[in-house]
Amino acid sequence: MGINSFTAPLRPWKPALVLATVIGMVLTGCAPQPKDTVFDGTQADVHKALHTRTTIDFWSWSPQAAEMAKAFEKEYPDITVKVTNVGGSDVAYTKLQNAMKAGSGIPDVVYMEYLAMPQFALQNSLTDLRPYAEEELSGSFSDQVWSQVETRGGVYGVPLDSGPLVLYYRPDVFEKFGIEVPTTWAEYTRAAEKLHTADPARYITADAGDGNGAAAMIWQAGGQPFSSSGDELSVDLSDSGTSAYAEMWGGLLHKGVIDNKVAQWSNEWRRGMADGTYATWIAGAWGGSALASHVPTASGKWRVARIPQYTAGANAGSLSAGSGLTVPAGSDSKAAAAGFVQWMTTGEAAADIWVKAGQVPAAEQVLASAAWLERKDPYLGGQRANKVYAEATASVRPGWQYLPFEPYANSVFSDTVGQAFARTTTLREGLQAWERDIVGYGKEQGFTVR
């Protein structure tokens, strides 16, 4: 979830909220379109802007945002950064869309999940940073991470954080029931059955259905169900990777070894994560800081491992959310905003704040630094968790594309795939229902869908 990765990690999209404000964002073009959607400035232009009295409006939901803004202002005293904590991704995108429709109150920089960038880029609401960003910034990131901010022939953000998919687990529960840390999904399935058989009150994990989580697991399985180019869209939620996920996870749901009634971030989920009801949690690498925030009483009881593989010995990973910084097309201070984005994503002082807060950076120089790799996570029992996150980041499968209206797709996940989590249909059938909804919506927005 960026992910609401920090204070309120990714939650399922709320249809009532999204349908009112976000669904009409795509090709129908409900908002006035800014004239300048490409930033063609140079590093010299950015340098000049950073030494000219300017105020930058920055929207974020990260608790580190204010501290990082103060550090930036110290280095660039001519710039004032006005930080607005918007409370979470769903609130941020709704508020941003409303500002764009009104044509006023548009911020200069927005913290945005990778999955949402294509939808805002589609309506020309974000600045294409490609000429500047490719020359000055792209070399700081891996190809897999950089590809998350590329869409529709442009670069609509700069990576800030990453969420490689990993497995959090309770070693005390595993030891009590004689379970080894699973390295394959077959081992994970056997562990789930063993645990629930020995104690029916315990489950391998809780999952009431979440579109972001399902997408990450489909990606890890090698699925590539979505692709788009221009007005052409391809949707196939029965490809080999998606089918592998449906067979494996659907089997666990059918056997009743996953708690399908408790949603992530609920009070009941937090209690279960604290008392050992749930032995594992599949999440992005932001999960460590999320657990420390939401389940503080379980400090020292959790550890992290690489995500299980479909084939023994394989090394396939994916991202579960992650976010970057975007410059809305309506910004009146694009050069200064670009400089702020550059400092936030590649600056040493910004990275220090990010690392000390236990976050997972996107910049390669930080991911490779000894200071970050050797950091011990007190919540995870002193484990050098960042080494696991770095390995998981390096294993991310290339080629994944989000839908150009991913937030809409997530908003209808519970109505389609969610029925499989309620065990009223199979997961494979739920995914096909989701595909039909996505295809129908894509056609309504003017896409040629195949």
SSE layout and pairings?
Layout: H1 15-21, H2 43-50, E1 54-60, H3 65-75, E2 79-85, H4 89-102, E3 109-113, H5 117-122, H6 130-136, H7 143-146, E4 150-151, E5 154-155, E6 158-169, H8 171-176, H9 185-198, E7 205-206, H10 211-220, E8 226-229, E9 232-235, H11 240-255, E10 258-259, H12 267-275, E11 280-284, H13 287-294, E12 303-306, E13 319-326, H14 334-346, H15 348-356, H16 364-367, H17 370-373, H18 385-394, H19 406-411, H20 413-416, H21 418-421, H22 427-444, E14 448-449
Parallel strand pairs: 1-2, 1-3, 7-10, 9-14
Antiparallel strand pairs: 3-13, 4-5, 6-11, 6-12, 6-13, 8-9
Helix pairs in contact: 2-14, 3-15, 10-11, 14-15
Word description of this protein:
This protein is α/β, with parallel strands linked by helices. It has two domains: 15-163 and 320-388, D-Maltodextrin-Binding Protein, domain 2 (3-Layer(aba) Sandwich), CATH 3.40.190.10; 164-317 and 400-449, 3-Layer(aba) Sandwich (D-Maltodextrin-Binding Protein, domain 2). Helix content is 43%, strand content 15%. The protein has 22 helices and 14 strands. It has helices spanning 15-21, 43-50, 65-75, 89-102, 117-122, 130-136, 143-146, 171-176, 185-198, 211-220, 240-255, 267-275, 287-294, 334-346, 348-356, 364-367, 370-373, 385-394, 406-411, 413-416, 418-421, 427-444, and strands at 54-60, 79-85, 109-113, 150-151, 154-155, 158-169, 205-206, 226-229, 232-235, 258-259, 280-284, 303-306, 319-326, 448-449. The strands form four sheets. Strands 1, 2, 3, 6, 11, 12 and 13 form a seven-stranded mixed β-sheet that branches. A three-stranded mixed β-sheet has the order 8-9-14, covered by helices on one side. Strand 8 and strand 9 (232-235) form a beta hairpin. Helix 2 (43-50) crosses helix 14 (334-346), helix 10 crosses helix 11 (240-255) and helix 14 (334-346) crosses helix 15 (348-356). It is globular and about 65 Å long. The model is unreliable at 1-33 (pLDDT under 50).
